[in-house]
Write a structure and sequence with these properties.
312 residues; mainly alpha
């Protein structure tokens, strides 16, 4: 039976285990500490030792399986968590537009921070941490670092990063894909740690209060908030590293996409920018934007249909 259990958990993806599963298990482990503290450690140990071996195994497996299921749910929502930390917050109607006002205030705060960095002539830092243009600034530092990386290929080559990324990713060498996965895993790990910390601040505090453990509620609230904020702050450097990798991929490997599609490479920077714009229009709208764009992509101009008289 034990080898079978080991086989089941051994099949879990290593990235999933290190990025999501471990923080979620730590979250449930801290909840157990609160429960056992209220129940009494001696009493809990006595109850555990009184269980038969099968009961202990069932309880341990049930705990791991429940934590794994929750971890899978969290993993499925990673993209949503990233957008949440970027600052894409829904304007919930019952709040009467308060979310929108808070978003605008935080966005202006980020603009002011960027302007202070510019005044201090920290241009390299601004380029990595903020997108170009006031209208593209987001309400969080994490979101601005991500958007700066997303808009980098457009600023340089008129290449829509969001549109081209999944297509370019399919053409990348395995070593580059591994590097991207490692950088993204590090970033996602800190975000999951942050989410688990904030979740424990709420769930752990309520659990401790329900069990009458007042000091446990204070520790859960303070510790959860500290871990949540610390995880977010740590994610910023990981996000910066991931954004740097994304920039490098577009700078170094963008022509791999042209080579894969058998499209000719441009001969000048102006031609390159025009060519990427034409390709983006083709993929986004289903066809070239003009006859000039069609010729730029190597397509022959289509002939007008012939007007033949109907056959008798």
């Amino acid at each position: 039976m034990f080898p079978a259990i080991g086989d089941v958990f051994g099949t879990l993806d290593k990235r999933f285990v290190s990025t999501v599963w471990l923080p979620v298990q730590a979250f449930f482990g801290c909840l157990l500490v609160i429960v056992f503290s209220a129940y009494g450690w001696t009493r809990a140990r006595t109850t555990w030792t009184a269980l038969p071996a099968g009961g202990q195994v069932a309880a341990a497996v049930g705990y791991l399986v429940a934590g794994t299921l929750v971890a899978y749910v969290v993993a499925a929502q990673i993209s949503s968590l990233i957008r949440l930390y970027e600052g894409y917050w829904p304007d919930i109607r019952p709040l009467g537009g308060r979310v929108k006002r808070v978003t605008e205030a935080l966005t202006q705060r980020q603009r002011d921070r960027r302007d202070r960095l510019v005044a201090d002539e920290q241009h390299a830092r601004v380029a990595l941490a903020y997108p170009a243009g006031d209208d593209r600034v987001l309400p969080t530092r994490f979101g601005n670092i991500m958007r700066s990386a997303e808009t980098h290929p457009w600023q340089r080559y008129r290449l829509d990063g969001v549109l081209f990324w999944p297509r370019l990713y399919a053409c990348l060498p395995e070593a580059v894909v591994t590097q991207i996965g490692a950088a993204r895993s590090n970033m996602e790990f800190m975000l999951v740690v942050s989410v688990c910390g904030y979740a424990f601040a709420g769930v752990g505090t309520v659990t401790a209060l329900v069990l009458g453990l007042w000091w446990g509620a204070a520790i859960a609230l303070a510790g959860g908030l500290l871990v949540g904020w610390g995880g977010y702050v740590s994610s910023l450097s990981r996000c910066l590293a991931f954004g740097t990798v994304v920039r490098a991929v577009f700078d170094v490997h963008r022509f791999a996409l042209l080579d894969t599609l058998k499209w000719r490479r441009p001969e000048s920077w102006q031609q390159e920018r025009a060519q990427w714009q034409a390709i983006g229009h083709l993929w986004l709208h289903g066809g070239p934007g003009s006859a000039e764009e069609a010729r730029r992509l190597g397509y022959q101009p289509s002939k007008p249909p012939e007007n033949k008289p109907p056959e008798d």
